[in-house]
Amino acid sequence: MKSTHTNSDTTTWASLLAGWVQFAQTALALPETDEGDRWRDSVAPAIGLHALAMALAELHALDPEERPLAMDKAEIGIKEHAATINSAWSGEPMPESLAELIDDAKSAWEDSLHEGVVWRCKSDRFTTRHPGEIGLAMREAGFMGEIFIAAPGVEMFKDAPVAWCRDQSGGMPDEQVVEFVHGFLETCTGKTEQPEIMRPLHQVYRQMDFLAGGPSHDLASPVTGELPAGQPLLVPVVVGGDICSVSLPPKSGKPMESLEVRWATLEQRES
């Protein structure tokens, strides 16, 4: 699979985090102030938050079975470190550098939860058929993660994500799940790139030009953060083990004009 990472049998969450703690101790530059106690109380949790944010970006190095526990430990660690810093600055404005560390760690955890496998359109356009068979197969397999696929009959364009899946705690699902989704997409109209890891996953929004009376472009935007305007084109097929209702494709009509696929920038995501 494209962009997948090799797991190391000797890598554990503890060793992964320890490596980043050591790095953070030398790399994290905290402001020098005269506020003594407040800063001394904040140094350890600040390093912990920075280490957690960096380690979360490398969860692909873990055995997939260890990922749920790692995510739980990271979430608890972020809450504890943030609470310690909040307590230290109680009644005083928190320095922006510390507030950013808390936000960065929370965002890293959210992005890790929404890491998964994505298929992008390789051909000029791509159209899926109804994915009912995927839902039935995943229920039979006991899959508890998520699968989103382009709405049946809706034309997708080159480079747009047309499907994605993730495990319940984020990351790549079992290979059999990925292979089943890949096999389904190969029976649809058009071609996809090989599946690849994306963090975080993206939804595709068809944005309109109301003055022109039609769609202007498709926007691929992270599923985390603020939702942009437009019609979401990827629909849920399986969520938490439940099969979702997917509408039948519309009656075929005249092919629409090709649309440019744009990817949201970091600035757009944070605005």
Give a brief description:
By secondary structure, the protein is α+β, with helices and mostly antiparallel strands. Helix content is 38%, strand content 20%.
Overview of this protein structure:
The chain starts with 12 loop residues before the first helix and ends with a helix. It is α+β, with helices and mostly antiparallel strands. The relative contact order is 0.14. The protein has seven helices and twelve strands. It is globular. It has helices at 13-27, 37-56, 67-88, 96-113, 132-141, 175-186, 266-270, and strands at residues 116-120, 125-126, 146-150, 156-157, 161-166, 196-198, 202-209, 214-222, 231-232, 234-239, 242-243, 261-263.
From the structure above, extract its key features.
4-stranded mixed sheet, 6-stranded antiparallel sheet, globular, disordered C terminus, alpha+beta, 38% helix, 271 residues
SSE order: HHHHEEHEEEHEEEEEEEH
Individual helix count? 7
Portion in strands? 15-25%
Unreliably modeled segments: 2-10, 266-271
Structural class by sheet pairing and helices: alpha+beta
Strand order in the sheet with the most strands: 6-1-5-3-10-11
**Overall mean pLDDT:** 87
Shape: globular
According to DSSP, the number of beta strands is: 12
SSE diagram, text form:
Blueprint: H1 13-27, H2 37-56, H3 67-88, H4 96-113, E1 116-120, E2 125-126, H5 132-141, E3 146-150, E4 156-157, E5 161-166, H6 175-186, E6 196-198, E7 202-209, E8 214-222, E9 231-232, E10 234-239, E11 242-243, E12 261-263, H7 266-270
Parallel strand pairs: 8-12
Antiparallel strand pairs: 1-5, 1-6, 2-4, 3-5, 3-10, 7-8, 7-9, 10-11
Helix pairs in contact: 1-2, 2-3, 2-4, 3-4
